[in-house]
Amino acid sequence: MNRAGEWYTSGTFWTVAGVIVAVIFGALTVGLMMFNPNRRRLFYGMPTAAPLLPSRAPSALDVRFDGLRLANPSVVEVRLTSRSRKDIPSGRFNDDEPIVLDVGVGIVTLLSATSNIDTMPPVKVKDTELHIGPGLIRKRQTLTYTLLTDGQAPDLTCRSPLIDVEMRPQRGAEERQRTYEKFTMAAATASTVVAAATSIMSWLMQ
C-alpha cells in the first residue's frame, strides 16, 4: 500500500515526531547543564580523620604538642576541590569574608597546606575552623589541609561567602558510580526511543 500521500497526516507520525523532538531538547538541556562554561563549583570533604590513640590506650600513653597533653588527638585531612571551568577570583568573596570549614573539634595546629597548583589562597586557624581566603582559587585546583585536632568524632561543615559559586560536600566513590550508572541508563533509554521512532517514521514514509 502506498502511503506517500498520507504519512504527513498520520497521527502516529506526529506523535513519533513529538517524541523525537522531546528527546532532542532533553539531551540539549542536559548538555547545557553539564557543560555550562560559566559554572563555578567547589566540593569540600574530609577524606581522613585518623585517631592517634587506640580507644583503650594505657594511661601512661599520651600525645603532647608543645607541652600540651591531647586527650583525643587525631590527624584530619580537609580537602577543597574546584570543579569550575573558570577561576574563582578573590572578588567573589562577599565582603572579603573567608570560606569557613568547621571540623567540629579543636584544631591544635595546621600541619600542612598543599595544592596541585602553585598558588594558594591564604588560610588561618580559628578554634575549630579553617578560614580560607579571600584569594584566587584556580579552576580544577585541589587544596589539601592536614590538621592535628583534639576532640572526639570530627565532623565537617561549611559556610561560604562566595557569590554565584555552588558549594557541595564531596561525594563518595559509590555515589559517583551510582550517578554514572543512572546517566548511562538514561542515555541508553533515549537512544532506544530515538531508534524506535526512526524505524516507525521510515515505515510510515514507505
Task: Quickly list its features.
206 residues; alpha+beta; 2 helices; 32% strand; elongated
Q: How many strands? A: 11
Strand line-up of the largest beta sheet: 6-9-4-1-11
Q: Could you name the ranges where pLDDT drops below 50 across 5 or more consecutive residues?
A: none
Cα-atom radius of gyration: 27 Å
Number of helices: 2
**Sheet having the most strands:** 5 strands, mixed
What is the domain tally? 2
| CA-based shape | elongated
Percentage beta strand: 25-35%
Write a brief caption for the model.
The protein is α+β, with helices and mostly antiparallel strands and 206 residues long.
Structure, explained:
The protein is α+β, with helices and mostly antiparallel strands and 206 residues long. It folds into two domains: 7-36 and 175-204; 44-164, no CATH class. The protein contains two helices and eleven strands. It has helices at 11-34, 173-204, and strands at residues 41-51, 63-65, 68-70, 73-82, 99-102, 106-115, 123-126, 129-132, 142-150, 157-159, 166-169. The longest helix has 32 residues, at 173-204. It is elongated. The mean pLDDT is 80.
Secondary structure blueprint with pairings:
Layout: H1 11-34, E1 41-51, E2 63-65, E3 68-70, E4 73-82, E5 99-102, E6 106-115, E7 123-126, E8 129-132, E9 142-150, E10 157-159, E11 166-169, H2 173-204
Parallel strand pairs: 1-11
Antiparallel strand pairs: 1-4, 2-3, 4-9, 5-8, 5-10, 6-9, 7-8
